[in-house]
Amino acid sequence: MGGSKWKLILTLLVSLMFVLFLAACGGNDATSSNEGEEANNGEETANTDGEASSNESELEDTYTVVSDTSFVPFEFKGEDGEYTGFDIELMKAIAEEAGFEINLETTNFDGVIPGLQTGQFDIAIAGISITEDRKQVIDYSDPYYESGLQIGVAKDNDEIQSIEDLEGKIVATRMGSTSSQFIKDNIDGAESKEYEQLDQAYLAVENGSADAILYDAPNVNYYINTTGEKLKAVGELYQAEDYGIAVTKGKEELVTAINDALATLKENGTYDEIYETWFGAKQE
Question: What is the SS3 assignment for 26?
């Protein structure tokens, strides 16, 4: 075979190898590009799923709820040793509707708000009046009960008929309550005698060591109606106030969940059922 033919064959072989090389490189680039896009799509999907998971998991599975130890009929220990009452049953219904569990703890009322501030508790339901001062350190749900302050005196006491008659008197109440502050701010010369336990305040009036008790109306009236009427209620309903469920500051998603659940319970009649169990039919 002549030299010119060998050169021609070599040239063709080199050209063919070059074309095959380019095709192979092009195929690898395309594959790499597609795999990169698939990988990026996978990352985007993962990020989207992560965001969805984050949104779905804003609420925790369980929250620590604190309540009072003896604020009948809102929270108290029943005959079976379990805590019950309007607040307890309402909180259970709210938790079920919102989709979280609760771990119930109890303390004296004056320890409720400090416990929320330190993060010892997440939620508190204990007949807690909504006040501007408290809003500085805790968050509140929407109001769930309208209350006010009521005077209670010994059944044979006809001297005290109104808030003005408490001037210069010894008035029993509960430590850390809004009624304690009301006495100091509004009743001239009155001595606010504060007790950790409510039954101590009522006993003080019964045994004469206090002239009257000033406390939340539903509790005063419940005590009078269930203890043989040793005391009686006098005067008007003072300082109308709403109760709210208290939440540690900064848990906005929890406040929203509680408010949504409370609204649902009011709409579907569950709230009224719980209310009537403890207070009878609502007065319109």
Answer: helix
Amino acid at 174: R
- As a whole number of angstroms, the distance between CA 257 and CA 255 comes to 5
- The tens digit of pLDDT for each residue in 198-229 reads 999 999 999 999 999 999 999 999 899 888 77
**Residue 83: in which H helix or E strand, if any?**
strand 83-84
Under a CB-based contact definition with an 8 Å cutoff, are residues 150 and 220 in contact?
yes
pTM of the predicted model as reported, rounded to 2 decimal places? 0.70
Of the candidates 190, 189, 113, the residue with the CA atom closest to the CA atom of residue 151: 190
Q: Are 148 and 217 in contact (CB under 8 A)?
A: yes
Long-range contacts of 182-188 (CB under 8 A, 24+ apart): 182/149, 182/214, 182/238, 182/239, 183/214, 187/163
Residue 129 DSSP one-character state: B
How does pLDDT run across 241-284, given as a tens digit for each residue?
899 999 999 999 999 999 999 999 999 999 999 999 998 876 55
Gyration radius of the chain over CA positions: 35
Q: What b/e sequence results for 190-218 when a residue is b if at least 16 CB atoms lie within 10 Å of its CB, and e otherwise?
A: bbbbbbeebebbbbbbeeeebbbbbbbbb
